[in-house]
Amino acid sequence: MPHRVLIADDDGNTRKGLRELLELWGYEVAEASDGEAAAEQARSLTPAVVIADLRMPKLDGLGCWRRSSRSCRLRPSSC
């Protein structure tokens, strides 16, 4: 069973590029175009990893993490 990755970014080209790369590597990928949708998907899909843009409409990446981490086991990390 492949690991699930959630990509949260308001730029469709960024989501598309990351999706193509991650799927090529065998990951199952879900997408969200804003922070609120990402927080909801993080709770319902329980992804292994969330890749989130810090600047998104409705809720930024840190707000998304804060909201999602209350109900699932997400830990912050950065590169």
Summarize the structure.
The chain is built from three helices and three strands. The chain has helices at residues 12-24, 35-45, 61-69, and strands spanning 4-8, 28-32, 49-52.
Describe this protein with a few key phrases.
79 residues
Cα shape? flat
How far apart are the first and last residues' alpha carbons, in Å?
Answer: 26 Å
The total of beta strands comes to 3
Alpha-beta classification: alpha/beta
List the uncertain runs.
none
Strand ordering within the main sheet: 2-1-3
List the secondary-structure elements in sequence, H or E.
Answer: EHEHEH
Number of helices: 3
How much β-strand is present in the residues?
15-25%
What is the residue-averaged pLDDT? 79
Rg for CA atoms: 11 Å
Helical content stands at 40-55%
- Biggest β-sheet, characterized? 3 strands, parallel
